[in-house]
Design brief:
The protein has helices at about 5-15, 25-40, 40-50. By secondary structure, the chain is mostly helical. It has a domain at about 20-50.
Length: about 50
């Protein structure tokens, strides 16, 4: 189980209806994939962010 603080959870719930994700689990799973990509490919990720 992952704990998400109340403020972040409220922010997620606010944007969720406008997002491509059907529910909180899909949103969090996608966020984890992005974070893993960033950590595993720091140089590539930094280039993407700076572009």
């Amino acid at each position: 189980m992952v704990n998400i603080n109340k403020d972040k959870l409220e922010r997620i719930q606010k944007v969720l209806p406008k997002s491509d994700f059907q529910n909180l689990d899909e949103f969090v799973n996608h966020a984890v994939e992005l974070l893993l990509f960033a950590e595993e490919n720091k140089d590539k990720f930094n280039q993407l962010v700076r572009s």
